[in-house]
Design brief:
9 helices, two-stranded antiparallel sheet, about 65% helix, globular, mainly alpha, 2 strands
Amino acid sequence: YWFLFIYIALYLISPFISLMWSHMKIPAKKALLGVFITLFSVYPFIWDVISRFNKNNLWSESTADGLIQGISPISLFGAGRGYTLINFILMYLIGCYIRDKIENGLKEKPANMLVLSGANLVLIVGWAYAERMLTGFELPTTVCWSIENPLIIIESVLLFMFFKSLKIKENKVINALAAAALPTYLIHINLLEYLQIERFVKSGTLVMVLHMLGCMVGLYLICFVIYTLYDMLTRPLFIRISKKWKRYRYIVAGKLNSNK
């Protein structure tokens, strides 16, 4: 549940980040974003790559064998493969920059975003296989999957821009299913042990694929039901809290906005 706790932390500080961003000039915004990308994505990822190809853990708690420690600007033991609040703040700033560009008339064609996303994905997957051949590490553990990897960040931006550029009309079914996405992320891990995954993986490719599809649909439906029941029970409470605290929820131009 690391994602939820870091997301809550980002949510609590995001109004102050947005307030700072709104008072900055365009050159300052670009400089800030460049510093964040360099310090918290490119630089730590370079050291992760060096660590992997050197077949050492540069972030080991022990420095007795000459291992490097304390050279990361994120933590004493490295970038944590990107699973940190710093990486979330970086992505939030990228989102602020994209919003500014869109407000200034940026328009991207979905096809272009899809092609670029596919090309970038080929680079990521190719890197993973090359790293496995060169280092001997298992494919899922290759460092290229670290979410501070600039290519992973680029991929997430391209996918976001792809869906942003799609002209999808409001759809009640999509909205209802989307509302259950985060609860599904939190709940589904507790149901995996009942799916007999190992058994179906050994039953042949077709059976495995059908089992995967069935599990995806089934898990989402189960989690959707759980979320719906939770929403029915808690919505009256949250509505009451929202009305009570409404005038304290918005920070605009350095002061509280009580008109929203």
